[in-house]
Amino acid sequence: MGADEIWKYSTGKGVKVAVIDSGVNSATSTLKGQVLADQVPKSVAYKATEDNDGHGTGMAEVIAGTGAGGGVKGLAPGVKIIPIHIQYIKGKYDGKLATSAEAIRAAADSDAKIINMSFASPYYDAAEKDAVKYAAAKGKLMFAGVGNDGPKGKASYPATYPYVVGVSAIDKSGSVAKFSTKSDYVDFAAPGVHIPGWCDGKFNEYCDTDGTSPATALASASAALVWSVHPDWTANQVLRTLIDTAGRSWGKDEPSTYLGYGVIRPRRVLINKNINPGPAHKDPLYAENGTDADEDVMATPSLSVAPSSGASGRDADSSSGSTATAKDSGSGGSTQTWVIIGAAAAVLVIGGAGFAVLRARRNA
Prior knowledge:
Elements: H1 3-6, E1 16-21, H2 55-64, E2 80-85, H3 100-108, E3 114-117, H4 126-137, E4 141-145, E5 164-170, E6 186-191, E7 195-198, E8 206-209, H5 212-229, H6 235-245, H7 266-270, H8 286-289, E9 340-342
Parallel strand pairs: 1-2, 1-3, 3-4, 4-5, 5-6
Antiparallel strand pairs: 7-8, 8-9
Helix pairs in contact: 2-5, 3-4
């Protein structure tokens, strides 16, 4: 991705990303001044900046960490984070926390342009799906991990809902990670192997983590970098340019079941002063989302979607974050190999010259 080169053009300044996760600890050295606790909607403000797991904080750092104090430096260090703490992360239940549906609706009503959902569930949730449609109508760009169950796994929610951009993980060579779920709902791939993240909610040390969770965070950061330079673009236009410039060796109209439209490459958008973002109100994923070519959910902001009921049909362990011992089933943020790399020594480096991409198609 060439982060050093990217930062000559954009750091994501002026863009806010809602991180729906296990909460975000705003006191880590690299997130000081990056978390907008005062802008969290009141309906989901409970424990927004408390994180007993470390997962949500890790995702926020991958997106917007400044690198201060030797912490992780994210891909878009100019971004500001709006944290939202949801239920069921790591199997812990707190009825006062927001459901995923409530969180998505609240994020849709906030100033965040992008909603990062580094979590995955095998369970369909009608309220969650309606919330996604509501957020799309508000012009938000949503990213979610496709899951860590490998090529034989099933794609997870919310990545499979219309208007959510599904993200898979690649390793250093650009090959799809062995744990990354193969699916018709993969739209992009991003680095997701050997990414530094907090070992736990004690925030004493970083660990070497794998998963579609950090890949999702990097996709969200990529979109933020582009939107910062082109603030007048719609979500459709940001997404379309990222699709057009993604790294792939197959036709744009034949997305891969492993890597979707390819490896996300925001630098290719940023360096092209004459890039054509296309129509503002045409969904670039209309075929996948089941809409007509000229239909745009953003054109109908007054959708007749019922307001959040405050309850979810999700089971107690229906979505999950990282676990310190083994890969979660369906998690967007599992950790396979935990290698302690030091409490204040990790800097996220996003580099690499090329990608060895898989050619498997969705019709394979």
